[in-house]
Amino acid sequence: MIVKCLFPVAGYGTRFLPATKAQPKEMLPILTKPLIQYGVEEAAEAGLTQACFVTGRNKRAIADHFDVVYELEDQIKGTSREDRLACIRGLIDECSYSYTRQTQMRGLGDAILTGKILIGDEPFGVILADDLCVGDEGIMSQMLKVYEKYKCCVVAVEEVPIEEVSKYGVISGKQLDERHTIVETMVEKPTPDEAPSNLAIIGRYILTPAIFDTIARTPPGVNGEVQITDALQILAKEQMVMAYRFKGKRFDCGSIDGFVEATNYFYTQMKQAEEGA
Ligand code: G1P
């Protein structure tokens, strides 16, 4: 059973400066909920109720968000505003939260290895909160089913326009069916010419604990950073790594376009729900 989910949240969010100067990018809201809350909700829906954060400087607001503020609760108790806190209060009660810090930005692979102290020797999920995903069934829940069947590392992928592959880790391999591909090749941020396909990894992973030793022997790659893509490429040669085309939609909330698109999507949903009510 997988119960832990790792949230690497140490990144600076420079694309959203100055908004991210003094607050974590993961706390930027889509309507009234911060990005990180969508991620924790997706994990909890899949039964991954132990949230493990790899944080950095300036990220205290995340820990505060997943804690109770008694004064505030007391003040709005019995008023019409009370239910505005209900969804986060429920999540606080449902999950446990633990934190460790990455002291230097050495890449996503390094961030995941930093989380080993919180994860231990068990398989776990990874959610990058920048990638906000929606679907009838949560993406992590879908991936859990893939893990249960194949008992190997799983990465979520989607097709992207070939001119955009350089933003992603890109995979190719042996396609089993419409949704499953056994990974043979993975390249981090290739040029369109180097890319093995247009199947891009999005920020959802299920990893087995073997990944930690593998990351430790992965040399720095693109941008001089230890890349999880490179570690998974090593692992794919030693054991199976499965790429899964998820059902649903992803918003790249690490970019202004994606962030606005997500905001519009959730706003339309909210208005439709209000009209239907
Ligand atoms: C990271 C990963 C990349 C993946 C992407 C998904 O890149 O390194 O392989 O495709 O997340 O969002 P980043 O967006 O941190 O540059």
Walkthrough of the structure:
The chain is 34% helix and 25% strand. With 277 residues, it is an alpha/beta fold. The protein has a single domain, classed as Spore Coat Polysaccharide Biosynthesis Protein SpsA, Chain A, CATH 3.90.550.10. The strands form 3 sheets. The chain has a 5-stranded mixed barrel with strand order 8-11-9-10-12. Helix 5 packs across helix 8, helix 5 crosses helix 9 and helix 8 crosses helix 9.
The strand line-up of the biggest sheet is 8-11-9-10-12
By helix and strand content, what is the structural category?
alpha/beta
Helix content percent band: 25-40%
Order of helices and strands: EEEHEHHHEHHEEHEEEEHHEEH
Low-confidence stretches: none
Task: Please name the CATH architecture.
Answer: Alpha-Beta Complex
Distance between the termini: 38 Å
List the bound ligands. Answer: 1-O-phosphono-alpha-D-glucopyranose
CATH superfamily: Spore Coat Polysaccharide Biosynthesis Protein SpsA, Chain A
CATH topology call:
Spore Coat Polysaccharide Biosynthesis Protein SpsA, Chain A
| Oligomer description | single chain
Instruction: Bin the strand percentage.
Output: 25-35%
- CATH class term: Alpha Beta
Count of discrete structural domains: 1
The strand count comes to: 13
